[in-house]
Specification:
Elements (H helix, E strand, L loop, with lengths): L17 E6 L4 H8 L3 H14 L4 E4 L1 H21 L9 E2 L4 H11 L13 H16 L7 E7 L3 H7 L15 E4 H10 L32 H14 L9 E5 L2 E8 L2 E10 L1 H12 L7 E5 L21 H13 L9 H9 L7 H7 L18
Parallel strand pairs: 1-2, 1-4, 3-9, 4-5, 8-9
Antiparallel strand pairs: 6-7, 7-8
Helix pairs in contact: 1-2, 1-10, 3-5, 3-8
Length: about 375
């Protein structure tokens, strides 16, 4: 398997003993739509194909998003309680989208980067899970595992190049290669291999994934909905069931509020696409931004609309395919991160508890400003 983000040469995978692939949940509806399968059957077909190529393990990155959401929830509550006008910690801006984060780091810098949530993205956390936790379970050094991410967008390739993606153990890169859903589909369509469907693996030995699950977002991991419910309960003891979105200037800018006795207690927003991001940044810099939290995604329409899977050959959005993908994604059962027994086990077994120094080391990051030198490979994308 060729590492697409290496420059001018093919990666030498002979030094790796184990080949592992992790699939983003927003990629699975694409495979289901392309091959007219249920999302569970699509995951089994994809897993079987990858294993026919010699992949040893195929994981779902939902568990990594669990950690990212849970840490983001805790951070928002902490920021809300510490916020003051002299040292503003709000609004908190999500940090899961690499296109947005790179724009914030490379172009915007202060006063925007201090508002970025410090929780690592699901891709970064999955790299740590595979190269640290899973490697230890398999009695392997991290450099003996070659880890590939299957993702809906090309920005994930850039994210894999960041030095901060290096895991804490032995300086091994968490993600060695990123392939988009579209690139995998091309491989599947051009292959004449005999493929037998297979269930997704888990990080826990011989266990297999029983059912595909997602988080509570219409086209993404749903940071807004999860953090909104958590904050309403933790800060105001309010139980929120259905999260009601109000569309404002366009369909990719929506607002969610928590109100009590005529007072707005929480005001959240979702801002997707570069046009809305620019609007957010402009108002933030002017000090006229009324929100406590913003879920920011670089792709208009969210992660399902990533350029690596939702576009035609001429670069236009495949609207029919995207609509089909949205329907498939909506039908996937939602699992709340708090309800995952595996996540709670990992907090104890892997990270020594939910508030240990290991949590900060493995699940959080810091951001560079515009003066940070760009990687020579990075600027070619």
């Amino acid at each position: 398997m060729k590492c697409e983000h290496c420059t001018r040469k093919k990666c030498d995978t002979s030094k790796h003993k184990v080949l592992a692939v992790s699939v983003c949940p927003q990629s699975l509806p694409y495979f289901a739509a392309k091959f007219s399968l249920s999302v569970t059957d699509a995951s089994r077909r994809l897993c079987g194909f990858l294993k026919s190529l010699g992949v040893h393990y195929v994981f779902d990155t939902t568990i990594a998003a669990d950690f990212s959401i849970l840490e983001s929830q805790k951070e928002f509550v902490r920021r809300f309680r510490q916020h003051n006008e002299e040292e503003p910690t709000l609004p908190m801006l999500t940090s899961a989208c690499p296109g947005w984060v790179r724009y914030a780091e490379r172009v915007l810098g202060h006063p925007v980067t201090p508002h970025l949530c410090t929780a690592k993205s699901p891709q970064q956390i999955m790299g740590s899970l595979v190269k640290d936790y899973f490697a230890r379970r398999q009695n392997l050094s991290p450099d003996k595992i070659f880890h590939v991410i299957v993702a809906p967008c090309y920005d994930k390739k850039l994210e894999a190049l960041q030095e901060d993606v290096l895991t804490a153990s032995r300086g091994s890169r968490g993600t060695d290669c990123v392939l988009t859903s579209g690139e995998i589909t091309q491989m599947m369509e051009q292959s004449d291999l005999s493929v037998r469907d297979a269930a997704l693996d888990t990080l826990f030995g011989d266990m297999k994934e029983e059912e595909v699950r997602r988080h509570d977002g219409a086209s993404s991991d749903g940071y807004l909905a999860h953090i909104f419910r958590h904050a309403a309960k933790e800060l105001f003891n309010e139980d929120v069931g259905e999260v009601t979105y109000r569309t404002l200037r366009n369909k990719d800018f929506q607002e969610v509020t928590l109100e009590k006795s005529g007072e707005v207690l929480l005001r959240f927003a979702a801002a997707y696409g570069f046009r809305n991001i620019q609007n957010v940044v402009l108002k933030l810099k002017k000090g006229k931004f009324p929100y406590h939290f913003v879920e920011v995604l670089a792709c208009a329409g969210g992660c399902l609309n990533g350029r690596g899977q939702a576009q035609t050959e001429d670069g236009c959005v495949d609207k029919a395919l995207l609509q089909k993908m949205k329907g498939i994604y909506t039908d996937i059962p939602v699992r709340l991160p708090e309800t995952s027994s595996h996540v709670q086990e990992l907090y104890q077994e892997w990270l020594d508890g939910t508030d240990s120094p290991r949590v900060q080391e493995a699940l959080h990051t810091a951001y560079q400003g515009p003066g940070h030198p760009a990687n020579s490979r990075d600027i070619k994308w």
